[in-house]
Amino acid sequence: MRVAIIGCGQLSRMMALAGLPMGLTFSFVAEADEDSRCVDGLGEVIRRSEASSAAELFAALGKPQVITVEREQVDIELLRRFSKLCPVHPNPDAVYQCQHRGRERQLLAKTGIDCAPYQLALPGELAQMSIPLPAVIKSCDDGYDGKNQWRLKQPKDSKVFAELPRQDVAYLVESFIHFDRELSQVSARDRNGNIVHYPLAENVHTQGILSHSTAPAPDVSAELAQQAQRMISTLMTEMDYVGVLAVECFAVGDKLLVNELAPRVHNSGHWSQSGSQTCQFENHLRAITGLPLGATDTHGVTGMVNLIGTDGAPLDSLDSHSQLHWYGKTVRAGRKLGHININASGHDVLQPQVVATLEQIKPEGE
Ligand code: AMP
What we know:
Helices cover about 25% and strands about 30% of the residues. By secondary structure, it is of the alpha+beta class. The strands form three sheets. Strands 9, 10, 11, 12, 13, 14, 15, 16 and 17 form a nine-stranded antiparallel β-sheet that branches. A four-stranded parallel β-sheet has the order 3-2-1-4, covered by helices on one side. It has a four-stranded antiparallel β-sheet with strand order 5-8-6-7, with no helix packed on it. Helix 1 packs across helix 9 and helix 3 runs antiparallel to helix 4. The protein is globular and about 55 Å long. It starts with a strand and ends in a 5-residue tail after the last helix. The relative contact order is 0.12. Adenosine monophosphate binds next to strand 6 and strand 14.
């Protein structure tokens, strides 16, 4: 069976690496200037500029049986045209809802799921807002890894408003949440509506970028786990979602506030490559190709440390219970270039190993 993926980054790479042993073949859609090194040797890369229509692109991709995405910022019209030619999972409407923070908030409101207090406003209206400060201004689209976000400390912070890249579009203005920790729920839903859940992962971000995750997250009560699973099941069912979905949350006491939905495999699920019976990449492929979902039982606990802006492997951290993954990208400051998964028998054993790994990859001078 042929699967086409829109995008050529590390998520596409890891999906293909999980799918090749399942007998799947892959092709990838790249933008004209997109770096496709991550998927070198894993399938054909077709540039959008090489085809004049969705049908031509579909043919060049090898007439796939199913099409999926590795990022939410995709051309929805193209996805809709593809969906007339073969199944597209997750469906274009679900991707459309998740690619814009305003639409995402509407979905949360509709399904009764909590998030931080927010307003949507044009830059010219920001000074009149009544949102509790400090607040974070976020662009509605094209925001990831903390990009396109600005802190607002004073109500009439005109310098911030003037810096916003566009004055003619609405921004999401959200109260700053003093969370206890960040948790994410990653789950997969198949074509028949069956859902499997990975355990909640605890995530630590540095300057908006995920630094490391631990899964299962420590000290998660049965109520908190159920709250997360209920929430994601509601969202998946509402969107008739097929594939892996990630929901990033702020944990405040025993309550989860949703920060963001990712309609795809997610960085906070990479730990599952060595920590779960079926990794998120395989489960996404099983879901979209119509196979039964795989078990998500865990092996001990797993730490995932992102290798950001460095190609120096933390070799001292590698032992018989750790795995190194490089994405084949060129080195650039702030760029996710790989990750290391560390498996351990318990959090007390894992914690010092994660700290030691972070210490090794710290840029000089910090
Ligand atoms: P995002 O791009 O929205 O996923 O944000 C990236 C990171 O910035 C989050 O994982 C948080 O660590 C932080 N952040 C975003 N929004 C807020 C908020 N309203 N309050 C506190 N921290 C936030």
